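Response to reviewer comment R2.3. The reviewers asked that we include at least one raw input/output pair. We reproduce the pair for Cation transport regulator ChaB here without editing.
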Amino acid sequence: MARIPEQQYKDHFRNNYQTASYYNKERDWNDYEPAYQYGYNQYGQREGQRFEDVENDLERGWETTKANSRLAWNEAKEAVRDGWHHIERAMPGDADRDGR
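Raw output as returned:
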């Protein structure tokens, strides 16, 4: 299935991350970008699955994926989820069959 082009996805979040409910003003784009990238990459690998069903696996993979991000998983999780659902909403139908 086609996804949002990666650059369009990044641009969306770069322009909007500071207005997200989970945004911490002590963090910057360099902290959040790896979380959004992780959501993008993992959605591509797990398309059709619910975020909630793979969340534990995502948490285990965050430490090795976060690069220079200062976000611990409990901070990064909502950005990863936001990225995941952003892709899902752009796809026709209910890609992960969760009713959203």
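The chain is about 60% helix and 0% strand. The helical segments are 6-16, 29-45, 51-65, 73-90. Further pairs are available on request from the corresponding author.
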